[in-house]
Amino acid sequence: MGTLRSRRSVLAVPASNPRFVEKARSLDTDAFFLDLEDAVAPLEKETARDTVVHALNEGGWDGRVRTVRVNDVTTAWAYRDVITVVEGAGAELDALVLPKVTGPRDVQWLDTLLTQIERAVGLEVGRIGIEAQIEDARGLVEVDAIAAASPRLEALVYGPADFMASLNMKSLVVGEQPPGYDVGDAYHYVLMRILMAARANGLQAIDGPYLQIRDVEAFRRSAARSAALGFDGKWVLHPLQVEAANEVFAPDQEDYDHAELILDAYEHATTVDRRGAVMLGEEMLDEASRKMALVIAGKGRAAGLVRTRRFEPGT
Ligand code: GLV
Ligand code: MG
Questions:
Q1: Tens of pLDDT along 25-69?
Q2: Closest ligand to 131 CA?
Q3: Any ligand 1 atom below 6 A from CB of 161
Q4: Distance 209 CA to ligand 1 centre (A)
Q5: 125 Cα distance to chain centroid
């Protein structure tokens, strides 16, 4: 299992556009990726690598998770993307995003190449993580093996645009329910499948982009669905989406306070009173309640929430 970092909002930044790269520094996201893949035209791919190296080395990313999306393993660009970026700025990079992963071999290839470069240039071996994008039918069918493919893996990332294309879905609105499907969430199975594989392997699960960038309410609805299932965050493409993602993927204040109270009450009950099942107000708590509270409290603390209620024994 890789390091679990906060990834409520993950900003997509086309690396061929220095203006967007500059703007990204001022946006309050937990993470970002400098994109060398689908947001960069083929003729710009090579110069974009240099922009990435420069942007990472220049710094100014204040604690954000710094990642770069390389091209997929079937392209002629992939190996040199990795080599140029990691040799040039490996010390300033937290993880690489590998798109269109279709099996464990893709991840193992990247793991091996990263290790070679780390050894060659004297970086700590294994520090740079991997996020694997699941964005076609083959990737989803192989998702369990992919999620277990490398100790560098930190997250599985759903790629709705490529996925919808891969399935021949009858819709052009990425991330939105396909017209004509009126009996639930058309993506429930896909999201749940990715989440299952991620959690079974101690990884984060990140939802992909919502392309109608001006419709913040629709973004919020889409984000709320994956957040409700347990996803850790979502890609954002525009400043308007950032605040919504940070909010939706953090617990609200009331749930956060409640979770911390459960942890305190349960700790008090098991250690001071030596009981494994207790009441908090009208609520019965046991070890499973503690685990659920730990998840919500963990998300709240990562989001910088501050408690507004204290536990008092006997209440
Ligand atoms: C992201 O890469 C997507 O295909 O949606
Ligand atoms: Mg994609």
A1: 999 999 999 999 999 999 999 999 999 999 999 999 998 999 999
A2: 1
A3: yes
A4: 7
A5: 23
